[in-house]
From TrEMBL, chain B:
The chain crosses the membrane at residues 12-30, 42-59, 91-113, 153-174, 254-271, 291-310. Keywords: Cell membrane, Membrane, Transmembrane, Transmembrane helix. GO terms for cellular component: plasma membrane. Pfam families: BPD_transp_2 (PF02653). This is Sugar ABC transporter permease. It is a multi-pass membrane protein. InterPro entries: ABC_transp_permease. It comes from the Bacteria. One of its GO terms (molecular function) is transmembrane transporter activity. CDD domains: TM_PBP1_transp_TpRbsC_like. Its main location: membrane. It is found in: Cell membrane.
């Protein structure tokens, strides 16, 4: 017999995918009315465990208890009936449906829509009043901000009378203000007696909002502790299995001559919307300029224009020489020849060809390099493979097999392949977008060290990241972008998240007036 | 061009638009659920052959209709298995089924009847005969409205009226019922449906089978109402025209009806080169007029009629992911 004071109890859950043991004998007990954090690196088995709990996968062995009752969960329908609601990292919403239609989907009453919609409208108003979950019921999902879409997901779960809410990496796409709002909502839900499971890799969120925290590593549950009795350092060590430096160690920058100068850079997209509205900036040798901002405010276009992936207007100079923004010399190849290395934001689309081997991926963009040619026609694959093996060792890519296809590496190791390729070309300017998105904590530390090492060698670095922590710890100067413009510059030593958060939302003075 | 000619044209338009409407609405169910179906043509052909053959043997058009629907549903089932259960490529599955239908229908008809791949001509109760709507005779002589009612609206086979009924029913199902909401959702984002605890496979199969039924009606109409018996390749690309109409209508039922009527009108014009000749001052070759519906199809498919956004998950087999 199990204890009914636990909302969820998992006993001896195991799940294997072929030879890979994703979950090994997992035991966890989540007390009712608490916020329970689950942390672990990518591939630690968090998602698999939650998928088992939501009926996506069936465990090979083990038992699930809901409120003390053994409850098999063979499919999502059973999970919903057991009172479990899930907010996925990638929202499961129908973009061209209204909020109301999304909420009733799968939970309609009767075969006719009108009655369901009317009832949902009433329930929704009640929920909005109870939990600060305001959202226009008739708005189309595609017109809503990401933060509002997430609220719809939470409303969906509450509408199905979920008592247990699982959130998978909920703050990845939110502004700091939206994230604060989310945690206020979660606290409110907790006060109403709901149980919340929060899956995240952000130690700060765990420390701030959870009551208990469980740590997973390589498919096993290594510890469950009270949040009040632990520290970020201790959790990080549990996650990785060794001591991890959370703070980036870096000396003061010694900026030299101006490397990149941009004046009035503008980009229009195919719909005629101006995505960059006159960007002017300078980056000097040996400094890191961090661009903070909510995704979609022009950072991607800025990187794309400089990396030769998009045409722009305006003036740009690299070490005093004109850098063409359109026409001849504005392509990626010319950019690389000019000494601009680019770690693109979306490594799986623009950084790698996933079906190609690591050694082929290492060549991309530099495939015309004389070192890789046997003669005018034939590439020197042996030299390329040897070079790849050397780079894989230097950058600690695991497993160090040049012939392995890129898709078979973990996210962190894929990123190391891209980083190894770009960093080893002695660039004068390094463009790096979301360097640690989806990358394990151990690899994050390594990539951060490499970026700083490049800066100390005198490379000018333009860093774009949606992770404010990363921007604040790596940058020597921070520029905040909003709506295709630079809202202002801040010194990382004197600014704080609140101030940056306001700028990221387009608010330029402390009185909260929009610019 | 006098009033009588216009009425004749409209009358032909409705008769020719009927198989297009059935096929177009058939495609609408499948495609709205996220399964592209280029095999409307093949299913129509199979239905035409089955209904022609069975109607001939039994002498009952209703038995023929049932056989046509079953034949078409068998093909729909294969399409469902390939593209939903086994996650094959939907376009290739559809093309393969079209080829299969094209050869199989002639082969079977030849084996059964030895008339060069045709079924014998149908007569009497083996065909759908025109029904005269109540009051048509009486209203016949009322100016303007009378002939319109008598010539254009009355005097079609029951399937013609059924086609318009199917359009209305489909609109209601799509926008007013739970099934419709789920069907539209599964074509846009199957993951949303799956996580809501509703079976993606179940929904898509129901949609594909409805497509089978409606294609069956389209094919049976061809063989037992529009014409009297099955003939080799008798659908003559109507499955593709219906597909073009579906895109033209941006996957909406009522718009689909108008699109089919437009295509039907062009087909009717092609039959009446004398009418066209009397309007335009220069001579238009008859073969050009016959090509017109197909030219329009190419025009629509090439995207000249504004951007048509297909259901977002269309063409993609659903694979559950974490």
């Amino acid at each position: 017999m199990s204890d009914t004071s636990f909302a969820i109890e998992l006993k001896g859950i195991s799940k294997a995918f072929g030879p890979v043991q994703a979950n090994k004998d997992i035991n966890i007990a989540v007390p009712k009315g608490t916020i329970h954090g689950i942390i672990g690196e990518n591939g630690a088995g968090k998602s698999t465990l939650m998928s088992i709990l939501y009926g996506f996968y069936k465990a090979d062995s083990g038992q699930i208890f809901i409120s003390g009752k053994p409850t098999p969960i063979p499919d999502s329908q059973s999970a919903i009936r057991a009172g479990i609601g899930m907010v996925f990292q990638h929202f499961k919403l129908v973009q061209n449906f209204t909020v109301l239609e999304n909420i009733i989907l799968g939970a309609e009453e009767g075969a006719m829509l009108n009655t369901s919609l009317a009832r949902a409208r009433k329930t929704l108003k009640q929920l909005a009043d109870d939990y600060e979950l305001d959202v226009d019921p008739d708005a189309l999902i595609e017109d809503l901000s990401v933060g509002h879409q997430q609220r719809v997901e939470i409303l969906k779960a509450l509408y199905r009378q979920a008592d247990i809410l699982i959130l998978d990496e909920p703050t990845g796409v939110l502004t700091p203000a939206e994230a604060d709002h989310l945690f206020r909502i979660l606290k409110g839900l907790k006060e109403q007696g709901k149980t919340i499971i929060l899956i995240t890799h952000k130690l700060r969120e765990i420390m701030e909002s959870t009551d208990n925290v469980s740590v997973m590593r390589r498919g096993t549950m290594v510890a469950t502790v009270k949040t009040a009795e632990t520290s970020p350092e201790a959790l990080a060590e549990l996650m990785v299995g060794r001591k991890v430096l959370l703070e980036v160690e870096k000396g003061p920058a010694t900026p030299g001559e101006t490397v990149l100068k941009l004046e009035d850079l503008r980009i229009r997209d195919e719909h005629g919307v101006e995505r960059l509205k006159g960007i002017s900036l300078e980056i000097r040798a040996g400094e890191i300029l961090g661009i903070a901002g909510v995704a979609g405010n022009g950072q991607s276009e800025l990187l794309a224009a400089l990396g030769g992936m998009m045409r722009a207007t305006g003036r740009a100079t690299l070490k005093g020489a004109a850098l063409p923004l359109s026409g001849a010399g504005s392509d990626g190849q010319s950019r690389r020849r000019a000494g601009i290395a680019h770690v693109p934001e979306d490594r799986q689309h623009y950084g790698l060809i996933l079906d190609f081997a690591a050694w082929e991926n290492i060549a991309f963009g530099y495939h015309n390099d004389p070192d890789y040619q046997k003669n005018a026609l034939i590439m020197d694959n042996a030299a390329l493979k040897a070079d790849t093996a050397r780079k894989m060792e230097t950058y600690d890519v695991r497993p160090p097999i040049p012939a392995l296809a890129a898709k078979n590496f973990s996210g962190g190791n894929q990123q190391k392949i891209v980083v190894a390729r770009e960093f080893e070309q002695d660039p004068v300017l390094l463009l790096v977008g979301q360097p640690t998105r989806g990358v394990d904590i151990g690899a994050i530390e390594f990539i951060h060290k490499q970026i700083i090492a490049l800066r100390d060698k005198g490379v000018a670095v333009l860093l774009v990241s949606v992770e404010l922590d990363e921007i604040m710890s790596l940058s020597d100067r921070i520029a905040v972008m909003f709506d295709g413009q630079i809202m202002g510059y801040r010194d990382p030593a004197t600014t704080n998240e609140r101030e940056l958060g306001l700028l990221m939302a387009g608010i330029t003075d402390q009185k909260g007036e929009a610019a | 061009m006098d009033y009588a000619t216009i009425l004749q044209l409209l009358d032909t338009t409705i008769r020719l638009a009927t198989p297009l409407m059935f096929a177009c609405i058939a495609g609408l169910y499948s495609e709205r659920s996220g399964v592209f179906d280029i095999g409307l043509e093949g299913k129509m052909l199979v239905a035409a052959m089955c209904s022609g053959a069975v109607a001939f043997y039994t002498g009952s058009v209703w038995a023929g209709l049932g056989a046509g629907i079953l034949g078409s549903m068998a093909f729909a089932l294969i399409h469902g298995l390939t593209s939903i259960t086994f996650r094959g490529n939907q376009l290739i599955a559809g093309v393969a089924l079209n080829f299969l239908a094209s050869g199989l229908t002639v082969l079977v008809a030849q084996a059964l009847f030895r008339q060069g791949g045709r079924t014998p001509p149908l007569t009497g109760d083996a065909r759908f005969n025109p029904i005269t709507l109540p009051g048509a005779e009486a209203m016949k002589d009322v100016p303007l409205i009378g002939p319109l009612y008598y010539e254009v609206i009355s005097g079609h086979s029951v399937l013609v009226y059924a086609a318009f009924g199917v359009v209305a029913l489909t609109w209601w199902v799509m926008y007013r019922t739970r099934f419709g909401l789920r069907l539209r959702a599964v074509g846009e984002n199957p993951a949303a449906v799956d996580t809501a605890g509703v079976s993606v496979t179940g929904l898509r199969f129901s949609a594909v089978m409805i497509t089978g039924i409606l294609c069956g009606l389209a094919g049976a109409y061809m063989a037992t109402a529009l014409q009297a018996g099955f003939g080799k390749e008798m659908t003559a690309g109507r499955g593709y025209i219906a597909l073009a109409a579906l895109i033209f209508a941006k996957w909406r039922p009522v718009a689909a009806m108008w699109a089919c009527l437009l295509f039907g009108f062009f087909q009717a014009l092609a039959l009446r080169s004398d009418v066209v000749g009397s309007i335009v001052p220069f001579r238009i070759p008859g073969s050009f007029l016959e090509a017109l519906p197909y030219v329009l199809t190419v025009f629509v498919l090439a995207g000249f009629v504004g951007k048509a956004i297909p259901p977002r998950a269309g063409g993609e087999p659903y694979v559950k992911e974490r």
